[in-house]
């Protein structure tokens, strides 16, 4: 099992704020991969990892740019978080399939940034761009603290 954390930035880079996860992946390139959110390959990507952080744009009714953090070992993603997926099945379904199959990593967290636009061809909105910067800092700080306690 790999002790190095895996960060997966999920989204469609050509659909406005849905590109959030991939934008974080670009910012943190040294420790992350980009992914489109397809469940079977998502499960495969975290196989053998002890620590996984998933990042995606969400729409729950919170203000644009708001950051949500969920410990996925403790519970499922709220249903409204999956409503903006560009796939019929997405992150929430992949996580629950992994849970059912006993294939969740020992530590798995989800960070979502509240999106404003999923328009085709659009770029990140200003609010989500600000959330992206804050999220990168939050994740780097989380990983730094984990390394100190290891």
Task: Describe the protein in words.
With 150 residues, this protein is of the alpha/beta class. The chain has one domain (6-119, 134-149): 3-Layer(aba) Sandwich (Rossmann fold), CATH 3.40.50.1450. It is built from four helices and five strands; from the N terminus they run βαβαββαβα. It has helices at 20-27, 39-45, 91-100, 126-149; strands at 6-10, 32-35, 51-58, 67-71, 107-114. A five-stranded mixed sheet has the order 2-1-3-5-4. Strand 1, helix 1 and strand 2 form a beta-alpha-beta unit. The protein starts with 5 loop residues before the first strand and ends with a helix.
Task: Provide a quick synopsis of the model.
By secondary structure, this protein is α/β, with parallel strands linked by helices. Helix content is 33%, strand content 20%. It starts with 5 loop residues before the first strand and ends with a helix.
List keywords for this structure.
150 residues; alpha/beta; 4 helices; 20% strand; globular
CATH topology: Rossmann fold
The main sheet orders its strands as: 2-1-3-5-4
Globally, the shape reads: globular
Overall pLDDT level: 84
Which class in CATH terms?
Answer: Alpha Beta
| Count of strand segments | 5
Oligomer designation: single chain
Order of helices and strands: EHEHEEHEH
The largest sheet, given as strand count, sense and whether it forms a barrel, is:
5 strands, mixed
Which spans have pLDDT < 50 for at least 5 consecutive residues?
none
């Amino acid at each position: 099992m790999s002790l190095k954390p895996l960060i997966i930035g999920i989204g469609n880079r050509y659909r406005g704020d849905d590109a959030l996860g991939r934008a974080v992946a670009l910012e943190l390139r040294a420790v992350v991969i980009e992914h489109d959110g397809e469940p079977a390959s998502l499960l495969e990507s975290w196989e053998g990892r002890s620590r996984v952080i998933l990042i995606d744009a969400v729409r729950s009714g919170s203000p644009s740019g708001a950051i949500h953090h969920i410990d996925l070992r403790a519970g499922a993603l709220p249903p409204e978080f999956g409503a903006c997926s560009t796939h019929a099945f997405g992150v929430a379904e992949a996580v629950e399939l992994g849970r059912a199959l006993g294939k969740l990593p020992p530590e798995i967290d989800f960070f979502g940034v509240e999106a404003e636009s999923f328009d085709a061809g659009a770029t990140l909105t200003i609010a989500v761009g600000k959330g992206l910067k804050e999220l990168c800092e939050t994740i780097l700080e989380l990983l730094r603290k984990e390394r100190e306690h290891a």
